[in-house]
Amino acid sequence: MKDNKDTLSRFWFVISNALPPIGFFLYFRHRKTYPNKAKRALTSAMIGVPIAILGGYIMNTFVLN
User: What number of H helices and E strands is found in the chain?
Assistant: First the structure.
């Protein structure tokens, strides 16, 4: 049976992408015990930062005016 402890679940991947501080938290929590899980959480959080900046810009410029 395959051990799935070192893989980040799809749920946490999406959450860390939508809310990058959660991804950074997951990275620091799992970086020593589960390096693959930590790397995927950090990657998702780093992808989520520019998406959040772009989404904030679009919301402020076009939607809220």
Answer: 3, 0
Instruction: Note whether 5 and 34 are within 8 A (CB).
Output: yes
Which residues have C-beta within 8 Å of that of residue 9, sequence separation ≥ 6? none
Strand stretches in 1-65, DSSP E: none
Give the integer Cα–Cα distance in Å for 14 and 51.
13
Which pLDDT tens digit goes with each residue over 16-39?
999 999 999 999 999 999 999 999
Both structure tokens of 59 = 């919301």
Report the predicted TM-score, pTM, of the whole model to 2 decimal places: 0.83
